[in-house]
Amino acid sequence: MEEIKVGLLGFGTIGAGVVKLLKENSALLTEKTGTRISLKTIVDLDITTDRGVCTEGITLSRNADDVLTDPEISVVIELIGGYEPARSFALKAIGNGKHVVTANKALLAVHGEEIYAAAKKNNVEVLFEAAVGGGIPVLSAIKGNMAGNRFSTVLGIVNGTCNYILTRMTQEGADFAEVLKSAQELGYAEADPTFDIEGVDTAHKLCLLLSLCFGTKIDLKDVYSEGITSITSEDVDFAHTFGYRIKLLAIGKMDGGQIEARVHPTMIPIDYPLADVHGVFNAIRLTGDFVGPVMFYGRGAGMEATASAVVGDVVDLARNLCAGITRRCSPLGFLDDKVTTLPIKPIGEIVNKYYIRFQALDRPGVLARIAGALGARGISIASMLQSARSADEVPIVITTHDAREEDVRKALAEIDTFEVIRSKSTYIRIEDNLE
Q1: pTM (2 decimals)?
Q2: Of 20, 98, 143, 205, which residue is the catalytic one?
Q3: What's the domain count of the chain?
Q4: Could you tell me if 277 and 300 are in contact, meaning their C-beta atoms sit under 8 angstroms apart?
């Protein structure tokens, strides 16, 4: 095969990176695939703004059908993002016998099952390495080199915006709102950062990781998701005192035939490798029964890092097409009829250690009342810290031994009704047994 022609939907930051890579490393890609990978057409609503990359020899269009119905184009790269029209475009490309490469985690987390089924019916491939971790090749590793393992856990820091915010709060003692504003000014956070800071983006990525690790269909609504908006500099300081750092963690665990699928701020030990993932960097840690713990680390976003993963998928397709092979590996790495639907463990049944902060009046007997309410729910205190009083109030911070989430919530709901408690209690889950 002398040439493989590619169409690109979406000419934003990542799209510009893909164009740059395909242009600058064209000869290298030919040396590695035995064919010329040619970008024929780019489609975007805005085809006039200068992206700082060379588009000589490439057709620029506002009409998606110029890619989706072109018989010469065999690979479509979808970088529009979101649910629609990305879903419709992907399905139309697949229906026309084209392979699809996408970085769209939201699309696959919500509509993946429909898209994978269409790809099977039309004997084409859907590849999405760039959807999780930007340039980190974790999905191909799960499907490839680590395919011989049964996975027990997958843990990830997979949202650079949240990790940047928490890193600065940790290193500078800054408040959340202050750092978020700075992140927006620097381009690390969107003008509307809701999907990032509320944990939705991380939940999308966790859906894909769980599907590949455990061979199961995951419904996004079953993934417990909690963002970082309630984290204060005070919590960050107390975490350090107890020997922890706070990270927004995607957590997937196999637990007796059920899957724990949750996204939330988590305290992890300072000497643990994930605790040293700073700024906009991402990291994913997997534990397999034979390989043991393995951690992937790198740039989780950005033009060049994400473009690297996108083009890596195109190269994989090019090699298969040159060899006359299609669907050598299914999208999730399992045979299609072996993908099951495992139950998700309700968040109330999760067992964790907890950090809990109370703001209480400085009165005799307060600690006894708090300890009594916790003890009545079977929650034992591991450590306790009472900070310096402010006027007539004092923060009381405790950590617990293992406790069931539902018991913790009920105990705190009761404690928050005490007249000596001045504001709603704060709690953060602790993960310090991560093997």
Answers
A1: 0.94
A2: 205
A3: 3
A4: no
Angle between helices 26-33 and 303-322 (to 10 degrees): 30
Q: Shortest CA distance to 339 belongs to which of 252, 253, 154, 214?
A: 214
Q: Is residue 269 part of a domain?
A: yes
- Residue 120 annotated as catalytic: no
pLDDT at 363: 84
User: What CATH number did the domain enclosing 181 receive?
Assistant: 3.30.360.10
385 and 411, same domain (yes or no): yes
pLDDT at 435: 62
Domain limits for position 40: 3-134+303-335
User: Helices then strands (H, E): number in the chain?
Assistant: 14, 17
Residue 16: enclosing H or E segment and its boundaries? helix 13-24
Condensed to tens digits (0 to 9), the pLDDT of residues 92-133 reads 999 999 999 999 999 999 999 999 999 999 999 999 999 999
Contact assessment for residue 400 and residue 354, using Cβ atoms and an 8 Å cutoff: yes
Give the closest residue to 108 by CA, choosing from 359, 332, 362, 334.
332
Q: Alpha-carbon dihedral of residues 399, 405, 409, 415, nearest 10 degrees?
A: -30
Task: Report whether 160 contacts 303 (CB < 8 A).
Answer: no
**Can you give the pLDDT at residue 1?**
59
